[in-house]
Design goal:
Layout (H helix, E strand, L loop, with lengths): L10 E5 L6 E10 L4 E6 L4 E4 L4 E2 L1 H11 L4 H11 L6 H41 L15 H21 L6 H11 L1 H9 L15 H23 L22 H19 L4 E4 L10 E4 L1 H17 L6 H4 L1 H23 L16 H7 L6 E2 L2 E2 H7 L1 H20 L7 H19 L8 H4 L5 H14 L2 H8 L6 H30 L11 E3 L5 E3 L10 H14 L11 H25 L1 H9 L10
Antiparallel strand pairs: 1-2, 1-5, 2-3, 3-4, 6-7, 8-9, 10-11
């Protein structure tokens, strides 16, 4: 194992990735596994560099002083002496050695000139960007207009360099080489091209290997506990544990077959050649994947199929009668899918692995997801499961609970509480499917791999926990007055407005920050070329979409009354989940944006709840 050469806190010269230029950096860490140094540049950017890309300041300054030791006057004098026809042979040999030294000097001068140009580029880019302020906690892509403008501004400087260079006598080969180095395209590609750090995941979430191993068992146990409690006459948390059913009653092959039929029916709708095809955000290798946007069409086709079943008097409350068995079937399917995903990821190229699920630990990578975008041909498994089987299934299950309430309590109309819960959550699902393209910019798609966490969450947690209020109301009907219903409806509308307008603002800016319609938005520029919004909803709190989510979750639970805390589990869970995501976003953005993120936090001090948190 090689010894470590540079210590933490030491100030050294680090090579800028993709170029031959060195900058002053500070060593902040060292990975004993990958043997990479974590260094921090003066603008706050943190990168991982190999030891061969780092030099001590003393050696760097020594080499630089050597390159500038000979003055221009001395070099010109030597050139005039070497050109004299009356010089002896000894003088000509000395002149050839001086010529070689001049070549070396010119090569080093070229590198120093590139350094000056790059510094000017970064300075002008920052100067142009700081005229507007842009803030948003999530990362947003900027277009290349500023780069093209600066490239045009640099062209006169480069032309001057070429004109001056014409008066220096040197071989044609050296001139061609210098021309290649001075090429504007290469200079700007050097600025844009950044070597990606090691894909190995170093910071583990959810308690690392032990925590994720426990979560694999804890999540299914939580779902089954909640469903069992909702069936009790007194679903108090004090009545623990609930009566456990016989194991053989939890599985029925017919129910599993119905679940498979539902899953593959949604897959069929996904493959239909309808809807537009769009590109996702660039991957680490610059490639963009294509996605077909037809989730709303799938919802319409599903609604037509359900309507046909009801027309032919199919009893949809079959879902309520076998709800626990459906949950077990979905959990078993998600486990099998997760195993398949992990096995196939072992043969996946490094560049296609998820940045957060490549730790090298089997259990952790299995839980988080090892492969970023697993596909079978053009069929994207993660993108499909994100919105189709679970989210559309959420609406179907809610409808089944509404019909079951009417049948069990002999009602000609569903209760007002049940209508509110169904309506609020139907709006949420339809909104997600109508704005399906926006999911392509979320962390689930761009950062998280597809493993047990997302597979179980999409196929089990969403359809069987998010329907908890409707499932609770079947066994525990709650009467509310029209004024109370109106107040709850107003609260849900407020939450939905915050959620939708904040997400729309973010997605529009991320897709095209130069859109004239977004000219009123101010942002903070960052060293990555991306921006952080500090006006609009994102200048109100750092995560306004989370605030809207929590307000809506509360409105979904209020129709269930206050007799038990069980219907509010979703609200408690959602607050904990969003606080975890917010903490993860804070850590990720601080590391990515450096000083710009600190400026953003000073401008927008509140994270989710204004004046509270």
């Amino acid at each position: 194992m090689p010894n470590r050469r540079f210590a933490d806190g030491e100030v050294v010269m680090g090579r800028w990735p993709g170029s031959v230029l060195y900058y002053e950096v500070q060593v902040t860490g060292y990975n004993d596994v990958t043997h990479l140094y974590t260094v921090k540049y003066k603008d706050g950017t943190e990168l991982e560099l190999k030891e061969s890309d780092i030099r001590s300041q003393s050696s760097f300054k020594h080499r630089k002083s050597q390159s500038s030791s000979s003055s221009p006057s001395r070099r010109s004098a030597s050139r005039s002496r070497s050109r004299s026809p009356g010089r002896p042979a000894k003088g000509r040999r000395r002149s050839s050695s001086q010529s070689r030294e001049r070549k070396d000097d010119k090569k080093k001068t070229i590198q120093e000139t590139n350094l000056v140009l790059l510094v000017l580029f970064l300075f002008k880019l920052n100067e142009n960007n700081t005229r507007r302020y842009n803030g948003e906690p999530d990362s947003t892509e900027r277009n290349d207009t500023s780069c093209k403008t600066l490239e045009q501004k640099f062209k006169p400087d480069l032309e001057i360099e070429r004109m001056l260079d014409q008066y220096s006598l040197h071989p044609r080969k050296e001139e061609k080489k210098k021309e290649e180095i001075y090429s504007e395209k290469k200079i700007f590609e050097t600025v844009k091209t950044i070597e990606k750090p090691s894909p190995k995941t170093k910071e583990l979430e959810f308690g690392g290997r032990i925590g994720t191993f426990a979560m694999i068992f804890f999540l299914p146990a939580t779902v089954f506990y909640l469903l069992l409690m909702c069936k009790q006459d007194d679903p108090s948390l004090m009545n623990f544990p609930p009566p456990l059913p016989a194991l053989e009653s939890l599985w029925e092959t017919r129910v599993f077959g119905v679940f498979l039929l539902w899953f593959f029916l949604q897959a069929l709708f996904y493959l239909l050649p309808i809807g537009k095809v769009v590109e996702g955000l660039p991957l680490s290798n610059g490639r963009r994947l294509q996605y077909r946007i037809n989730g709303f069409y799938a919802f319409v086709f599903t609604a037509a199929a359900i309507g046909a079943l009801l027309y032919f008097q199919f009893e949809l409350h079959y879902l309520y009668d076998h709800f626990m068995q459906f949950a077990v079937s979905a959990a078993a399917f998600s486990m099998g899918l997760s195993i398949y995903l992990y096995v196939r990821s072992l043969k996946t190229p490094e560049e296609d692995l998820a940045p957060g699920g490549n730790s090298g630990y089997l259990v952790y990578d299995f839980f988080i997801g090892h492969e970023l975008n697993p596909r079978i041909g053009s069929f994207d498994l993660k993108y499909f499961c994100e919105l189709r089987p679970g989210l559309i299934g959420w609406v179907v299950i809610n409808l089944a609970m509404l019909l079951a309430e009417m049948k069990i309590h002999n009602q000609s109309m569903p209760s007002l509480s049940m209508i509110l819960v169904n309506s609020f959550q139907l709006l949420y699902v339809v909104d997600a499917l109508w704005n399906e393209e926006a999911v392509l910019t979320t962390m689930d798609i761009t950062h998280d791999g597809f493993g047990f966490m997302l597979a179980f969450g999409d196929l089990v947690w969403v359809p069987f926990v998010y329907t908890l209020q409707a499932f609770y109301l079947v066994s525990h009907p709650t009467a509310i007055s029209w004024p109370v219903a109106s107040a709850i409806t107003l609260l849900n509308c407020i939450g939905y407005y915050i959620f939708r307008s904040a997400n729309s603002q973010k997605n529009k800016f991320r897709r095209n920050p130069a859109d004239p319609k977004l000219a009123y938005l101010k942002y903070i520029p960052t060293a990555t070329g991306k921006g952080l919004l500090v006006t609009g909803w994102w200048g109100f709190v750092r995560h306004p979409n989370y605030l809207g989510d929590i307000i809506m979750a509360l409105a979904w639970s209020l129709p269930c009354g206050f007799n038990h805390i069980l219907p509010y589990f979703y609200v408690i869970y959602f607050i904990c989940l969003l606080i975890h995501r917010e903490a993860r976003d804070e850590h990720h953005c601080k590391k990515k944006y450096g000083l710009a993120w600190e400026r953003y936090c000073q401008r927008v001090p509140y994270r989710i709840f204004p004046y509270i948190y």
